[in-house]
Specification:
AB_hydrolase_fold, Rossmann fold, globular, alpha/beta, Lipoprotein, single chain
Length: 396
């Protein structure tokens, strides 16, 4: 590597989390973490669903040695199921930390509880799959925000895989994500094949897209149902997945003509200001789906010559919509606009609710791509209030 490029590469790798440091086994035997009976939920054990309204499935290893059960960054010995509520900030020593109220539930009872909640809500379920650099607390916070912000009518499920929750552990997260492919696809297949599940809304963030897309394809190929049409509304927020791989594979199963005809669609939120995906591109060598970076310099020059924004998107496919949030990007990384930017949050809420068009979207030269622009009447909206609001929802 030429020396002049070394600082840039090091900065990119630091942002992306590439690190020579490895995660170690730790000072405690993993069997000791789960030895307490609370780590193995018994059939018929009561769970206060009113106090713990959200569902989770996780492949994380739990630590049941103290009063507060914690889900760790290590791989678990099996998939566990349970319920949780929004995390609370508590004092641990002299520091404040998030703690998620939660309780495990035996798998058969969990599925029955999910059915009971789903039956109350016309068969709709929302499944959230997180990305890189997350803990169970941060993903639970996001899942609760999604439920609150969208007013989703139906149970919300968080699928939590063993992300490390650290900037310098991207490579470990990527490894654990790929290790979890079988766990997640089996879980999604079981969910999709439940006759009482009429519609699954899947929301994935960042690295989570690399779990979601192959899993949907797997369910499409192997499901006992004819067309897996209940997986109907797929939202990829800042997806850290190879753009060309996505383009090549998506039409084979996930957006095949018969699935689009059965109402399946994918909405992708992208941003040219996404520094995390720019770093991922530097690490992997090719552009990510969630970043409209022009890998082809001739395409970029052509757009510039036409006076158009130099942004390149995934190719058009029936059933696919791309929402460019560059102009309303928020935070230093611009990697979570669907949860941080008022304009993007409003759009996301409508997509979750099944709306396919919004007057706030600005058309581009591509029929499947729309830009979100600041509202001239409200150029500085209260992002936190809008993205964390409790919307008014009509009774089911």
């Amino acid at each position: 590597m030429p020396m002049r490029r070394l600082p840039m590469a090091c900065a990119a790798l630091a942002l992306s989390g590439c690190s020579i440091a490895a995660v170690d086994y730790g000072p405690v035997r993993h069997a000791d973490y789960v030895a307490d009976p609370r780590c193995t939920a018994q059939p018929g054990a009561a769970v206060d669903i009113a106090a713990l309204p959200y569902f989770f499935a996780t492949s994380r290893l739990p630590d049941c040695r103290t009063d507060n059960i914690v889900l760790l960054r290590h791989r678990g010995d099996k998939i566990r199921y349970g319920h949780f509520s929004a995390p609370r900030e508590i004092d641990v020593g002299k520091k404040k930390t998030l703690r998620t109220p939660m309780a495990f539930q035996e798998s058969g009872d969990w599925w029955k509880a999910l059915q009971a909640e789903t039956d109350k809500r016309q068969g709709r379920v929302l499944l959230y799959v997180h990305g890189y650099r997350e803990t169970f607390e941060t993903t639970s916070k996001d899942a609760a925000q999604i439920a609150r912000m969208t007013g989703f009518v139906g149970p919300v499920i968080e699928y939590s895989w063993p992300s490390q929750g650290e900037v310098l552990s991207y490579a470990v997260d990527e490894t654990n994500m790929y290790h979890d492919v079988r766990n997640f696809r089996d879980f999604l297949k079981t969910l999709a094949e439940r006759p009482w599940v009429k519609e699954i809304v899947i929301v994935s963030h960042s690295l989570g897209a690399r779990l979601v897309i192959p899993a949907i394809s797997y369910v499409d190929r192997t499901s006992s149902s004819a067309d897996s049409s209940n997986i109907s509304n797929v939202i990829l927020a800042s997806p850290d997945i190879d753009r060309e791989t996505f383009e090549r594979d998506i039409e084979e199963e996930v957006l095949a003509a018969r699935r689009v005809a059965n109402n399946r669609r994918i909405t992708v939120y992208v941003s040219h200001a996404d520094k995390a995906l720019a770093a991922s591109r530097a690490l992997h060598g090719y552009p990510r789906l969630g970043s409209p970076y022009c890998f082809n310099p001739f395409e970029a020059a052509d757009l510039k010559a036409k006076g158009l924004p130099v942004r390149c998107y995934t190719a058009a496919v029936p059933g696919l919509t791309v929402i460019d949030t560059t102009d309303v990007s928020r935070t230093t990384t611009g990697h979570s606009n669907f949860l941080r930017s008022a304009v993007a949050c409003r759009d996301f809420v409508d997509v979750v609710q099944g709306k396919r068009t919004r007057p706030e979207r600005t058309a581009t030269q591509f029929a499947h791509v729309f830009r979100l622009l600041p509202d001239p009447a409200d150029p500085k909206p209260d992002d936190a209030a809008i993205c964390n609001r409790i919307p008014e929802v009509s009774a089911p």
